[in-house]
Amino acid sequence: MVVTRRAVIFALTFLVAVAAAAVTIVLATSGSKEADTFTLKGTLYVAKCMSSGYGDLLPGAQVEVTDQSGEMLGVGAVELSDAVTNRKSGETPDLKAICTSKFSVANIPTGRKMYGVHVGNANRGVIWKPESEAKQGFELSIGS
């Protein structure tokens, strides 16, 4: 079999075109995936956090994000409480204190009607927001 110079050039040109198309597809796909997600952030305020009854809301507690159809969109965790009001360093814990904790759940897909956040046991319920508000963050208050 005789391979002509013209056939070699054609084959190389074809391979370069296929490689360029593959690189373009990969770059287009990876760029759009990031734009189609967001990180849902929130703050959890727990009143009387120093008393019993809130063990399901301690740091490490699971944070679940779902959409209006009940599909699980992401899971995160409550972070270590960064502030306890009504308490000074070295003071006896105030049982009426309000603990403030943060949470975030990355890679939440966009384009859903409603986003629900649930923290703690099944009795706590779900807080719902439309996408525009969910992107601004959630503030959950528990206790009185």
UniProtKB/TrEMBL annotation:
It comes from Amycolatopsis coloradensis. This is Uncharacterized protein.
